[in-house]
Specification:
205 residues; single chain; 10 helices; mainly alpha; 0% strand
Length: 205
């Protein structure tokens, strides 16, 4: 996971590896820090980085994203990567805030969190498909501001509907993954037992 985070350090895919690292160490399950100073600072600084990205990025980040090296995953533009780092800081800060944990643990939010990954999977074709087509259509009729708001609202609504339709596929994939992992885990545990049994047979002979 650490190697993956380094390899994707200049792309949005680093979020997956950071998330896996946080989950691996059960960061959200551990007691939140008593002091809220560091988590609040992490959230504020993360938001600040995201806003500042529209105007300024550090030279090292611009150089990193523009470097043609093949040793790292292809980089996105520096402003987008700065927002990625800001979003990671916001996430880490929220995990360590007890008030945020309490709010995000509300049953109605937990129930709807199951749509998060389906939304992630289907939002891209919606964004560049029907939402973009609606924007172009409304732009010629009502102007760019109305077209922008209409496309955003329609895109969000369509993403929610499509994610709910896609949810059974996501649930099925997760269940198949669990069964495969359990089967592979059982096979890996069975191999040492078989080897130990063979050793005992050889010793008896």
């Amino acid at each position: 996971m650490l190697l993956g985070a380094i390899f994707t350090i200049r792309s949005a895919y680093i979020c997956f590896f950071v998330g896996h690292l946080l989950a691996h160490f059960h960061r959200a399950e551990r007691p939140a820090p008593v002091s809220t100073l560091l988590p609040v600072f992490s959230v504020i600084f993360g938001v600040f980085l995201c806003v500042l990205a529209e105007l300024w990025q550090p030279q090292w980040l611009r150089s990193l994203c523009a470097d043609p090296t093949l040793l790292l995953f292809p980089g996105q533009f520096a402003p987008l990567q700065q927002k990625t780092f800001g979003a990671i800081l916001v996430l880490i800060g929220i995990i360590d805030l007890e008030v945020a944990r309490a709010f995000l643990s509300k049953p109605w939010l937990v129930a709807r969190s199951r749509l998060s990954f389906p939304i992630y999977l289907i939002h891209w074709p919606i964004l560049f498909g029907p939402a973009a087509a609606l924007f172009l259509l409304l732009n010629g009729i009502a102007g760019i501001e109305t077209a922008r708001v209409g496309a955003i609202v329609a895109g969000i609504c369509l993403a929610l509907v499509c994610s709910a339709i896609f949810l059974p596929v996501d649930r099925g994939a997760l269940e198949a993954s669990r069964r495969l992992r359990k089967r592979m885990s059982g096979a890996s545990h069975e191999t040492p037992r078989l080897a130990a049994g063979a050793d005992r047979v050889v010793a008896a002979e």
